[in-house]
## 1
Amino acid sequence: MILKILLVIGLFLLYFVMKARGKEKEYFYLTIIMLIMREMSVPVVGSITPSTIMIIAILTGSFSKFGGYLNRQAAYIIVLMFAVLLGLLTTNFAFARVTEWALLVSSVVVISSQCQYFIQTEEELRNLTKCIVAVCFIFSLTTIMAYHGFADGTVIYSGVDASNVDNYHASRIYGITFSNLVQIISVITICLLPSLKIKKKWMEYLIIIVFVYAALITLKRMTFIAMIFALLYYLRRQVEIKNFKVILIVTTLCVVMIYMWWEPLMYRFGIAGFGTGEITDHSTQSRFDRIGYAIDAFKKSPILGMGAGYVTYIHNGFFEILGNCGIIGIAILFFKFIPKVSDMYRGNPYAVATILYVVTCFSLESAINHAQTIYFLGFFLGGYYVSKEVEWMNEVEQSELS
């Protein structure tokens, strides 16, 4: 307990030390890297990640300058505060549960705003992307290590031999993280790889192999779907620059790996009712039940919802927000969380990554309830807003030169 409190204090002090040395931006990058650390339970505060502490440290330490960015998002914060107040007045939940849910949702706004504050140039955006890819690579690599028996310091969900391919429920590997949800995020970051412009192609191949292999051994259906769309986008970018060698190598590697895992994957989709229309999977059925619970909460209070934290782990972020914040909350947050579809069609990598995240990890999983996963939506959105600003600046520079 004392060590955890010392860590909290230490991370706060580290920010002010780095700020005094003019290294606030480096501290911001460090908050992303610290996402590899699991949530921890701190007395009074509750369950938080080291990244949570560091985000709050940045927010409090730079509020005089950073506040301007938050003011643009004031409406979103106000709605969430209403949700907190309503939750405290109308439910018997503990204060920690109510505020934890609201803070997780509002963290998306705060993180995306922090990205706009710290990242202004194309090179800095590339550094942001490198940090995201590096964290996801560690997630995926430790998942593979756990699968092959190096489980020290990792968590194997089922508690049985996860390397037994014949046991389709056993292969749910968590790796260094607390949830195999991070593998959805890892494969989504494949969309960002072309923008890194990696000169050594073997490194790019290695990253894709690790991401795809880790995604397959988790046997998560949404991860597989996200992986297919991310790979299609990646290959589309290669077609645009006529890099047919990369297309051939990546396609061959991915087809071989998918073929190796085709039978367990089809089993996972089959028990969810795909192709048969009959759901025999408890996990799938419970998701429908939880969504029904959120809809009932929304019907009781459609305008403001039942309050933050009233419904949780719904496996659908939009229904969860509807149940907790009502029409007002979903209307505002919906427009905040979704990039322009036109930017996705144009091939903006962060727009594609964000929409793919929303469709899979946010809409069909319980990412909204985990700091380690919901923070990535903030970073994806922040990268999207920054990329739009960088595009505008480049257009201005080109017009001035002409």
## 2
Amino acid sequence: MSSQIFEELFDSKARVKILKFFFRNETGFFDLSTITKRVQENGLLVKKEILRLLKIGFIQKRNKSIK
């Protein structure tokens, strides 16, 4: 499948990049700044998309007290 199909399907280039990032790094924990750097998108846009993914349960927020 081409990236263009995903962009049409999901309507946001940034969301597609973020989803690809999580599929490729499914066992890791990442902060917002790391994700922003890795997907090379605007920080506010990444935050918006991350909040959407949290809301639908696609990703989970890690408890900071866990080490």
## 3
Amino acid sequence: MKHLVRKLYFRLTVLFSFIFLSAFVLYSLFTFSFLYQSFEQEDDLFFQRKLLSYWASYQNQGEGALFADLYRENIISGDRPFLIRAANSRNQTLFLHYPDPWRVYNLNSLEEYEIQDFARKLIVRAPGTNEDLEIFSTLFNENLLIQVGISTGRRTAVIRNYRKNVVMFLSVLGVLCIVISTVLASRALQPIKYVNRTARDIIRTGNLKGRVPLRGSGDDLDELGGLFNAMLERIEVLIDRMKDTVNAVAHDLKTPLTRLRGTAELALRPGTTELERQEALSDVIEASEEILVMLNSIMDINEAEAGTMRLRMESLDLCGITEEVADMYRFIADEKHISLDVIHPENILSIQGDSGRIRQATGNLLDNAIKYSPEHSSVRLYVENTCQGPVIAVEDEGPGIGEDERELVFGRLYRGSSAKGTKGTGLGLSLVKAIMEAHGGTVEVHPGTGGGTRVVLQFRHSGDGTCNSTNITNL
């Protein structure tokens, strides 16, 4: 992980530097292009102005006056020296005037061109220099060609200085970009460094209390730190719950295992009668059954969560199933002087489901309701058809479940605060939820109408989905 962060840190630094330098290079290229085009336009305007003035002199006063003007022309206009040449139809030089430093150019080569070649701009190069001579030409008549030329020296010098300054500034900017990019990358990766440091501390010490400090910026990396903290809190809760669950399972398994061992030892004592051995074997089977129920519940939950729970789907009458399950638990309710009432519509309310699993889910709800209800109270089992689908609800008058625990009670092996000291493993509601999800339904916990708890099993519509609520109770 440390190597990964360093690699990412380096890549971000390179990326930021590349972006900054690329932006500067693009800006420099744009400025260079604009500057170069401006010089070219200025030179073109100079050519046009000169040739236009000569053309006006020729048109107004004739060829003689034009040559007189050429002889009087100062070959330096402002700070710009230029060349003037006049030639006949055979491109023989009639007049040529240029600054002395331009002798390095082979101006005699101009007579080697054909007249038609002067329709375009000509470039004359001098050996050993970076400056060119640009020449524009205009035919005043069939026997008179006027040419004006200027040097690209000024343009070349400015461009050369500009390029040199850009390279120097780019070198300085490169160093600044690396420094700035390093700072930005460090700030950007700070939350990841916090995550790494917290993870390393947890791995080293095993203490899940550590948390990633948040900057409060609300950006994606800050959100990552918050999610990491939430994950740590969730893991801490799960581990604490697991510890409690292991203790609870160990405690609950200890009793049947101890009874099983004691019964088996009793059966093996010398002088034990056949009747006593049979009773011992019966007790062993009962204790084994308790253990198997617990282990089978855990396996069923695993299958449901993995989506592999096998269901034998068939058309079921919810009213008939709930009556059968209630009959099984009336004896237990009577022992605590608890009245168990079943309220359902007279007509058949059918769903598609697994009969054994629906009985198991309903039985778990009734078992919890009776277990946690005080003596001389009542437990009610409702069945009705709502707009969302058929519903089974079990309501008791027990201590109830706090709002902060209504989602936690469905966690595997979770036991609420009101269940402390009561026999159980915390698998009942987890299994109910797994069975309902396997059937495509839901389970929810609500406060009871007169106190206690109401657990609602919501099934999907198996028919045409019409809403025909029986309104037995406010579920």
